[in-house]
Design brief:
The protein is an alpha+beta fold. It folds into two domains: 3-80, no CATH class; 95-220, no CATH class. It is 23% helix and 37% strand. Strand 10 (138-144) and strand 11 form a beta hairpin. Helix 2 (93-112) packs across helix 5 (187-199). The chain is elongated, with a radius of gyration of 23 Å.
């Protein structure tokens, strides 16, 4: 017995599908296996997200026609993501560039100092702070076991400043406003900018303290 045949009389069997699209055009989704047509325009979370480039994570909602054994796609929702390999949601194209810069810093620091644990978080919902609710674009968490410190920072692209917004973000962590020339720069420039912004000096001059612990040398971040 087909799944839709187990529905009670009067109930409409429904279906949904999640996938990755290479492009969105009105009611059409371009995927690796061909075009998918929906009965209504594809919905986005915002106008900025609609203007972002691919890839897109999409969800389709449809109804099953038992007589024709077919599915009619009635609604489609699309969310731009960083890449096909990193399904990190973004709100606009500037955030896609910012993720790339954050990952460049993460890789550079990890290669030089493997003991550092650096994670990049993308909150999906508002966070409650003492100054009200706010949703930071990205949260950078730096855990340094050598100095036993954990620092949380908020990274956001420059522009679109809203009065009071950064004050609420400061309740979560120090705010790093990344300028456009860094977002569009190369990986070396991006990694260097973050180190300078976080620690106040270029990488070679800050990561030079050596601490001996349990018979091994460990590089430590200066405060």
């Amino acid at each position: 017995m087909a799944a839709w045949q187990r529905f009670a009389d009067g109930e409409q069997p429904q279906a949904c599908m999640v996938g990755l699209a290479r492009g969105v055009d009105g009611r059409n989704l371009a995927t690796a296996v061909g075009q998918i047509h929906c009965a209504s325009d594809v919905a986005f979370i915002s106008a900025a997200a609609r203007q972002s480039g691919p890839p897109f994570l999409f969800m389709l909602a449809g109804v099953i026609d038992p007589e024709r054994d077919a599915i009619t796609l009635v609604r489609a929702f699309a969310q731009p993501v960083f890449s096909a390999n990193h399904l990190l949601p973004i709100d606009n194209e500037a955030e896609r560039l910012l993720i790339g810069a954050l990952l460049a810093f993460q890789r550079s620091a990890a290669a030089r100092f493997p003991s550092l644990r650096i994670s990049v978080e993308k909150p999906l919902f508002d966070m409650e702070t003492r100054d009200g609710f706010v949703r930071p674009p990205f949260v950078l968490v730096i855990d340094n076991p050598t100095t036993r410190t954990v620092e949380r920072l908020v990274a956001r692209p420059a522009g679109n400043d809203v009065e009071g917004h950064d004050a609420r973000l400061e309740s979560i962590g120090r705010v790093l406003v990344v300028p456009d020339d860094i977002l569009t720069g190369d990986a070396h420039m991006q990694a260097g900018w973050f180190v300078d912004a976080i620690y106040g000096a270029p990488l070679p001059f800050r990561f030079h303290c050596t601490i001996r612990s349990e018979g091994a040398d460990h590089a430590a971040l200066l405060p």
